[in-house]
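=== Structure Prediction Worksheet ===
Name of assembly: unnamed complex
Input type: mixed (protein and possibly other molecules)
Chain count: two
Listed entries:
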Amino acid sequence: MNENASKELTQGPVADPGVEPHVESYVASDPKLDKAAEGRVIACFVLSAVSAIASLVLYFAIPMTIRIDLGTFQANLHNVLFGTTMGLAILLIGIGIVVWARNLMSDVEMVEIRHPEASSDEDRTEALVMLSDGVRDSGVARRKFVLGSLGGALGLFSLPLIVTLADMGPWPTKRVREQTLERTLFAEATPQQPIRLVNDVTWKPLRAADLEIGQLVNAQPENLQDFHGVEYQQEKAKSSIIVVRMDPDSITVPESRRDWQVSGILCYSKICTHVGCPITLWEQQTHHLLCPCHQSTFDLGNSGLVVFGPAARALPQLKISLDDEGYLVATQDFTVPVGPSYFERDSRNDFKKGDA
Amino acid sequence: MAKPAPVADTHDPGSDATNTKRVVSAQDIDLPPALVKQAPLARWVDDRTGIATMTKPLLRKVFPDHWSFLIGEIALWSFIVVLITGVFLTLWFKPSMAEIEYDGSYQIMKGMLMSEAFASTIDISMDIRGGLLLRQMHHWGALLFVAAIFVHAARVFFTGAFRKPREINWLIGVGLMFLGVMAGFSGYSLPDDLLSGTGLRFADGLMRSIPLIGTWAEFFVFNGEFPGDLIISRLYMVHILLIPALLLALVGAHLVLMVYHKHTQFAGPGRTERNVVGYPAFPVYAAKMAGYFFTVFGVIALFGALVTINPVWTYGPYNPAQVTAGSQPDWYMGWVEGAVRIMPGWESHWGSTTWSWNVFIPGVILLGGFFTVMALWPWIENWFTGDKREHNLAQRPYENPTRTAFGVAIITFMVLLQFGGANDLIATNFALSLNAITWFLRFAVFIVPVIAFWVTKRICLSMLKRDQDRLLHGSPTGEVHRTPEGEYIEDHTPISQGEGYAMTSSEDPAPLEAGQATDDRGVAIADGERISKRRARASRWWAEGNIPTPTREEIEEAHSDHEGSHELESSGQQ
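=== Predicted Assembly ===
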């Protein structure tokens, strides 16, 4: 087989002229040039050493607090000077070695013959003989049960290890989903004990009279403040809302949501139904809300329906009303879960275009 | 200048004369005195390890020289730099999501509530001398690592260096690419800043979209609802233990196989399928590799010093109610991001379930499909060509038009998706409509790659045609003559034998024929492996337009037709 292959090669259409004769390099042709190249290499190494020492001095000499500001170039002085000298110390070693290898080392090309990747037929046979000797010595051919029971044991021994992964997280059973994915802090609200909507920076309750037409406020339920740490983040990731006031004559309110708003003030989930980014970009004239992550666009003037982008479901709307003091409140949770869809819940009955 | 090494000093088994000459005694060896002084140490080590026998075949091993062979080396060295800087970062980074009040030197954040992970990242950036440099070097190094892997993979793909006997090494390489991307993503998420938290939120949505097990995957990975309290410490383990260990093992295997196969080389005078021509490992390649390591290391250090990357202190801690416009992942996830952005909002419902195609297809299927097709490529190509030969000569990309066209089509697809991942920035910077860009890309990602395939294939074929012309008729001199009959003829001068040899030393196998009983080397094909009609048709499509390499007779005939032209063989030089 190998003979065939080499025959194929020697019989190519154009004969192999062989490796080109070695031509002495320019640097090697003249001792002066050789000396100069050597000088360049040494210069690189010396400069590298100087740079390394400079970086050590700069590391201790420069305080961490100085910032440089050259318009587009703003940086920490310590980082720039220490880093540059350190980088040069390393880079110059590299350049020096490469110049050395390229100019001063032999550039005579060598030829090495490739060996075939495959083992020789003798080696293959020998290995097979050894394998069969081993199989015979182990006696597995006669003792089928030993192998069979070992196979069973090997198949099962990993299960106790794998099963410990079962507690990597709570199981999202129906009950757990109801307590987590399908519930936000607004679930604690009732008509008797409503929850106020508060500004998510100042934590001040929102008063309907303070909202101008076209204004959008990022808000949270008042009871979010009771939480801390991980729970706070988890709740905030679901309960974030936007409160927006639009001209009632310029928006479409379906019959079923007539009492979900307060004279043109509507409240929606801030969490995108695509992959859960908080939606922020508000186009006042069109009433469109755009998600900066993947540009899903929702029409807040029309029940939060998707008008563009990869999101499939409308933004969940929260029913809001006024309390005795004129503050905006929620009296119930969202009617559908906020955030991205998930396998276990059929979202086909969520609000969609054409619903009344 | 070192003494020129004898060219005849090969491992050519046929040459007995050189073999006997290799028997030398230790006294004959002309070593510098400094090394002679180390002889007792060398003997001590060799007595215990047999190191002389081990290094003998490696010290003067020949490597071929070409700039494109250095790209994989960039990946290797940036990986080492990332390991070194990463070890430093672990000295200060705290992978904890526990909430603390920031009390460091960065005044703007004083008193802010944040996770320990973010606070320690700010400390590294603001309070630890050299900490920011290491962080930025780590990030730049990681980006360079993944970029070099992609370019290296493209080099191997377009030169056909994945073909027999190197398919296993190609598979290992695909594994390395996947792990490199995962290493990058897991590291990107660790600082727990606003941008990386948004990335995690995306990963959460991606997992949730998986049919049947989505919610379970999400709850298991995040220990409950997003963001949970364990994701940072879990990713930390993945990032500094699991992935680096796998990467190191696979990098080792990748290099061992590369040395065992010997590197591919481009065709050229004296370069055949059965030899390798180049410089010895010691000293030339050892020096070049060391020099290259320091160069990569130094360049990454200069980037860390001079180019700010991921300034988390301007983003602030993660807040699930905030996000910035222009939230983009690191570049290697940009094409997946683009696919997610331009995907229409499709969801379907069966029974009481929801299937989120809008996230699952571009996120999970596309990413999985890319790596699957890539891993299987040597076998996919082989299904078309039926090529069973070993290949040690790297092809120039145009020598295999269909493969190159396919590769260019895939790259076009990914670049368009990358544009999709930046559609908001394109819209704002070029004053274009975001919706128009998105709609354009929804069609373009399917149409443009097909055009790119066709154009590339035609370009490759015309380059082959040009090669053919040069081989048969020589190179045009630019001198035009008028014959007594009034005909104008441009003079051609024959190309060198070396160029002619390089052009003709690789040959594409003929397309498969349905039901053929022997392969192109005449070996009988078993009944079960007979070529189906469909495969034969695919094989013809693959080879469509290929120009068969001319035979020796055809070349000679073409040359004798040329009035006043010389025999190619006799010309030697141009």
